[in-house]
Design brief:
This protein has five helices and no strands. It comes from Pongo abelii (Sumatran orangutan).
């Protein structure tokens, strides 16, 4: 079968368009200008055990939307975590938080936008945190 110049050019253009459509678009992620990261240096385990459960409980109690998103993500995480390899000491709350953020980001929900803006503004220093 002999293919002419026009057909080859058409196929190449169609291929380029399809490849471009399905390309993953990269987005640069960095710290917000006024974000604060205390890194929990040398106290991660203590923070996870002593403060995180109560803080999460308080946040969910005062933000109904967070409570709903968290519970939905908890169910998704329970199904997902059995299918993947997890790093040592990976906590369920980390997986639930990731599932919540990813699910909401994919759908571009109001919660996603609210949360993203809050992260940029919250905890600007140890005093504000």
């Amino acid at each position: 079968m002999k293919t002419g110049h026009f057909e080859i050019v058409t196929m190449l253009l169609a291929t380029m368009i399809l490849v471009d459509i399905f390309q993953v678009k990269a987005e640069v992620l960095d710290m917000a200008d006024n974000a604060f990261d205390d890194e929990y240096l040398k106290c991660t385990d203590r923070m996870e055990i002593k403060y995180v459960p109560q803080l999460l409980k308080e946040e969910k109690a005062s933000h109904q939307q967070l409570d709903t998103v968290w519970e939905n993500a908890k169910a998704k995480w329970a199904a997902r975590k059995t299918q993947i390899f997890l790093p040592m000491n990976f906590k369920d709350n980390h997986g639930i938080a990731l599932m919540a953020y990813i699910s909401e980001a994919q759908e571009q929900t109001p919660f996603y936008h609210l949360f993203s803006e809050a992260v940029k503004m919250a905890g600007q220093s140890r005093e504000d945190y």
